[in-house]
């Protein structure tokens, strides 16, 4: 019994000692963080902003973000508050912290909806979503664009569309339009890939529906020609030859040199 009590007391002592060490470490960390934050107190908002710009130019994105966060915390309504947010969007994006970049862009749009540079925030939202579609696995195990989940690509397309519709004269509108063409073609190719899969598996109704969807929503993309061909094959496989012939005529009319024309 005495031995057990002794062991219990030792165990209790170790637990208390460990807890004390943890609390002391926490206090040390807090003091370190406070000291780290205090070093920014001597800077004005202008100095913090220009300091961040220099850091970005050197590629020191994490340090630049610290400067911008310090500016935001100390001068939330200062002359450089809006500029700091815009630079933070870019800096987070360059650091591949897309979640923070998107959140900062959203915040800028919410706080400064009529700012002369709000179009930049909308443009960056499109870029961020586009880059989000390329995940960790895609970087190390490359795959065709159309094989990836297209959710982010669709989101990016609609964000660029919002920019173009709201700010048709924006300096970013021409590039946004080019990216929209690319995204539309990519999404259409993904739909086409699904239609091919259904046709190969003998799911002819599903293949026809997917091909028709491409014609309705992604006409004049490189996927249109094969989508019509899949519809023709699908209707023929179902024995609906009159509709198959109608779509064959459409294919022959629009793509007279097509190698996909079914004889």
Short note summarizing the structure:
With 263 residues, the chain is mainly alpha-helical. The protein contains 12 helices and no strands.
For the biggest sheet, the summary is: none
**How many E strands?**
0
Strand content: under 5%
Domains counted in the coordinates: how many?
Answer: 2
CATH superfamily of the largest domain: Tetratricopeptide repeat domain
Structure class: mainly alpha
Q: Helical residue percent? A: over 70%
Can you identify the CATH class of the largest domain? Answer: Mainly Alpha
Any guess at the CATH architecture of the largest domain?
A: Alpha Horseshoe
CATH structural fold name of the largest domain:
Serine Threonine Protein Phosphatase 5, Tetratricopeptide repeat
Report the end-to-end length measured between terminal Cα atoms: 96 Å
The pLDDT mean sits at 85
Secondary-structure blueprint of this entry?
Blueprint: H1 2-38, H2 45-57, H3 61-74, H4 81-94, H5 98-111, H6 118-132, H7 136-140, H8 151-166, H9 173-200, H10 204-217, H11 224-238, H12 241-254
Helix pairs in contact: 2-3, 2-4, 3-4, 4-5, 4-6, 5-6, 6-8, 8-9, 9-10, 9-11, 10-11, 11-12
What does this protein look like?
By secondary structure, this protein is mainly alpha-helical. It has 2 domains: 15-99, Tetratricopeptide repeat domain (Serine Threonine Protein Phosphatase 5, Tetratricopeptide repeat); 116-263, Tetratricopeptide repeat domain (Serine Threonine Protein Phosphatase 5, Tetratricopeptide repeat, Alpha Horseshoe). The protein is 76% helix and 0% strand. It is built from 12 helices and no strands. It has helices at 2-38, 45-57, 61-74, 81-94, 98-111, 118-132, 136-140, 151-166, 173-200, 204-217, 224-238, 241-254. Helix 2 packs parallel to helix 4 (81-94) and helix 4 packs antiparallel against helix 5. The longest helix is centred in the first third of the chain and has 37 residues, at 2-38.
